[in-house]
Amino acid sequence: MSYERSGAWTVDHAVRVLAAGCAQRHRPVPAVGAVVLGPESVMLRLATPDEAAPPGWTVAQCGRTWLSSLHWLRTAAVDDRIPEPYPLLVSAGVIDGGRLLLNLAQANGLTSIEGDLGLARSLARSWSRRLAISPWAAEARVIRVRFPHDPDFAGWNVSRLAEAASVLDEPEGGILFFADRPLGRDLYQVDRLLSEPARRWSVVAVGADDATWRFTVGMDGTVDTGLLAEPVRLRT
User: Fold this and answer.
1) I need a labelling partner for 72 at 20 to 30 A (CA). Which of 59, 140, 180, 203 fits?
2) What is the dihedral of CA 151, 157, 174, 193, to 10 degrees?
3) pLDDT exceeding 70 applies to what percent of the chain?
């Protein structure tokens, strides 16, 4: 089994274990901005401090992080009736603690990828390809707007967002990727989707205006996530 496949299985299993443990405690899963898959543990970085972790998870940094050992997770029970808690997790690269995955659904508005244009679009393509086939995003729709044809992409590739109108109306929702900042009718649609009270869609655009979460891709192959002090070493 490849590292990529085994890593994806481990992350998928870990968040399913978390969901099952929270359900047993009759509490919701925490809002998580990032997951770090290390050599011996999985770490969750919470968007809001929470010290009421279910069994098997250790609370650190005053509730900002939860940790669990891979040894315990491998044999912990899951409940397949519980939906995936974080369907929009994407691999951002490597930090000193392991592989970093970001939860794009946690952005409170538009997400922008900035910096070198070619590398930014390459990262957006990589995220879209992985989400279209990842084990935890099976119910999430993945739509790309104004990207070149890509035979490895299993989602919807359109030149204008209006071409995906029927998909946008589906209750499951998902994520939109723009090759550049949305304009005109596309921008109107994006604003409408992001203003829904129960948000179904997340939006990532290269070089977007008015973004609430910005990733900056450097020519040195690193990404500044705005979430961690250390840069992420890019892996696409």
Assistant:
1) 140
2) 160
3) 97
The tokens for 12 are 């998928």
Retrieve residue 178's tokens: 């723009």
pTM of the model: 0.90
CA dist 39 and 25 (Å) reads 28
Tell me the C-alpha distance between 2 and 5, whole Å.
Answer: 5
- First-to-last alpha carbon distance for the chain, in angstroms, is 19
Residues 96, 32, 13, 36: what is their CA dihedral angle, to the nearest 10 degrees? 0
Strand-strand pairing, 111-115 and 201-206: parallel
Look up residue 3 and give its two tokens: 């590292």
DSSP assignments along 126-172, one per residue: HHHHHHHH-TT-TT-EEEEESPPP-TT--SEEESSGGGGHHHHTSTT
Which pLDDT score, from 0 to 100, does residue 235 have? 64
CA distances to 16, 21, 158, 194, 202 from 79, rounded to whole Å, are 7, 9, 36, 31, 26
Separation of alpha carbons 80 and 76, rounded Å: 13
148-193 pLDDT, tens digit per residue, is: 988 889 899 999 999 999 999 888 899 999 999 999 999 999 999 9
Q: Assess contact for 231 and 223: CB atoms under 8 A.
A: yes
Helix (H, G, I), strand (E, B) or coil at 193: helix
Report the DSSP beta bridge partners of residue 209.
none
Please, is 192 exposed, middle or buried when counting C-beta atoms within 10 Å of its C-beta (0-12, 13-18, 19+)? exposed
Rg (CA), the chain: 17
pLDDT at residue 3, as a whole number? 37
